Amino acid sequence: MPDAAEAIGVSERTLQRAVQRTIGTSPIRFVQDLRIERACHLLRTTDMSVETISRKVGYEHPRTLRSLLRDRTGKTTSELRGGDRR
């Protein structure tokens, strides 16, 4: 956000408010939602490990992804995969 705000010549807070007003959610939540959507897709369609998927969607630690998935979907990574794949 700081780089984006600087690039368009506004404060970070002004940019955050504009994003919130435009898309109806905070910039952080928006990015998290995109990452979670991609992670769910990868869990359903690949055999990649959760560690690999976590890195691919932008999380250094798989526990962060697991926690967000559980909070947002109510499911574990195994459940999102279909239960029989790792």
Automatic annotation (TrEMBL):
Superkingdom of origin organism: Bacteria
PROSITE patterns assigned to the protein according to its UniProt record, in alphabetical order: HTH_ARAC_FAMILY_2
Keywords: DNA-binding, Transcription, Transcription regulation
Transmembrane helix listed as a keyword: no
Biased composition (Basic and acidic residues): 64-74
Domain HTH araC/xylS-type: 1-83
Location of region: Disordered: 64-86
InterPro entries attached to this UniProt entry: Homeodomain-like_sf, HTH_AraC
Protein name as it appears in the record: Helix-turn-helix transcriptional regulator
